[in-house]
Specification:
Elements (H helix, E strand, L loop, with lengths): L9 H26 L16 E3 L1 H22 L8 H24 L6 E2 H25 L10 H25 L23 H17 L2 H28 L16
Antiparallel strand pairs: 1-2
Length: 263
């Protein structure tokens, strides 16, 4: 795997343990979201006696911002021996660009939204600090890619997957924001884009995006992030899919939950 230095230091060992820990945590997280709590926010939050903590827009900015700020601070304040190499800069830039959008642009586009409960807010905040450190330190200080990595099929395919996934995610969010016209209330069936094929089009885009990141990075840390993403948003997509089927008699029966034509 073109990611590790030949003589790993203590921090690199820590980064590997953090990655294994993320993978381990993703399994019970998937179980809990599937069989116990489904999702503690949005349309499902009324199922639980969990107090609203912050308005949706404020909560989103605070919980996502560390994933953008932590890498930037690490680059400014710590040794970053590998950031001078183009593959490392490109891959870290992809991560930072995504979270610049998710923490500073996406929240400004939110229309209304239910208050975010305390528990998922704190968990999301912790995850963004954890993952921001893990991805940034690995790519800036330890990831070593061979000559020609920018033309390697894994890098090219991964970048394409990332770009397509991010585009699907952003477009799907746009569709969801514009389901209701001004003054309208209630829920509607999302139409167009990847919603033609899956109920969780935004979740599909996010999963594809970070799977592509894992392929392009070809590292344990990126694989851990992609695994956690899939096992975290997958149950949420399935919950939304079941809700749509129960709510709307005319909901398209040929739509999958998150993976087109499969799942």
């Amino acid at each position: 795997m073109p990611g590790s230095l030949e003589l790993p230091g203590d921090e690199l060992v820590l980064l590997d343990y953090l990655a294994y820990g993320m993978i381990a945590v993703s399994i019970p997280t998937c179980f809990l979201l599937t069989f116990v709590t489904t999702a503690l926010y949005g349309r499902n939050s009324t199922q639980f006696i969990v107090p609203g903590f912050l308005p949706a827009r404020v909560a989103w900015v605070i919980q996502e911002l560390p994933a953008f700020v932590v890498p930037c601070l690490l680059l400014l304040t710590t040794q970053a021996d590998r950031i001078g190499y183009l593959p490392n800069r490109v891959l870290l830039a992809l991560y930072i660009v995504h979270y610049f959008h998710r923490s500073l642009i996406f929240p400004m586009l939110i229309r209304g939204g239910k208050p975010t409960p305390l528990v998922p807010f704190l968990l999301a905040l912790l995850f963004c600090v954890y993952n921001g450190y893990m991805q940034a330190r690995y790519l800036s200080q330890y990831a070593r890619y061979p000559d020609g990595w920018l033309t390697d099929p894994r890098f090219i395919v991964g970048i394409l997957m990332f770009a397509v996934g991010m585009a699907i995610n952003i477009h799907s969010d746009h569709i969801l924001r514009n389901l209701r016209k001004p003054g309208e209330t209630g829920y509607k069936i999302p139409q167009g884009g990847m919603f033609t094929y899956v109920s969780g089009a935004n979740f599909f885009g996010e999963t594809l995006e970070w799977a592509g990141f894992a392929v392009a990075c070809w590292s344990l840390q990126a694989v851990a992030f992609a695994t956690f993403t899939a096992l975290n948003v997958g149950p949420r997509a399935y919950t939304h899919h079941k809700w749509y089927l129960q709510k709307f008699d005319d909901y398209p029966k040929d739509r999958a939950a998150i993976v087109p034509f499969l799942l």
